[in-house]
Specification:
About 45% of the residues lie in helices and about 15% in strands. The protein is an alpha+beta fold. The protein has an eight-stranded mixed β-sheet with strand order 4-3-2-1-5-8-7-6, sandwiched between helices. The structure holds zinc ion (ZN).
Amino acid sequence: MIQSAFHVKRTIVEVGQRIYRNGYVVSSDGNISVRTSEDRIWATPSGLCKGMLTEDQVVLCDMDGKRVSGTLNPSSEIGMHLMLYRERPDIRAVVHAHPPTATGFAVAGIPLTPCVLPEVVITLGQIPLAAYGTPGTPEISDPIRKYVKDHDAFLLQNHGATTVGPDLMNAYFKMETLEHFAKIALVAHQLGGVGALSGADVQKLMRIRERLGLRGELPICDTREMLKNRTPCPSSPHQAEAEGPKPEGDEALVEAVVKRVLEALKKA
Ligand SMILES: [Zn+2]
């Protein structure tokens, strides 16, 4: 679909407002881009608040990241966007933000890979955790590159998250889904454990995903989680190794309450 330059810039401004209003970025964080042809990318400028952009501040650059028109420089993360466009020609838009709950998982070193929510399995599949790289440098791209062929959403360790799509609203909604999933997973952790879907249930969702023509090779979800039904997620991979499997559901809740009561008694 051919989009007018005005429409592209308008949508970038709107998505900038949405990620700022939703608290996915603060200050001048985050960046957004849209690829409109083989060698043309519209991108947010460096150093400005994404919630307050105007259409004339959106920068046009080429596939080397060089500015083609305008006076502002493209985002310092343009290299990551270009890598994603080069690796997957079907990607036409990229959103990078620091949504706080998903970024909390990225800081804790926990990928959002278990198959838990049907809509997430269908629209995103697994959300892998790409190893840390210094923001604004080529270091950030290599760890993402190994996941890009089969995934549309990535956590960036100690940094944030990136989503891609065939158009900008699609990439933006993936960012919403990613953060929403992270919030639900966090609450489930707090309540005692994340119950993963069974392998059979995941296979049914995979078939729906295939019918919809969505990306990702099978199995896109964590097969370790698929082997068991209602498996609690460890609070961190290292802790899981150190402590062994955790009790499920009510047991974990009772254990947590007992621990708290004992601590309170000690202090009294
Ligand atoms: Zn960032």
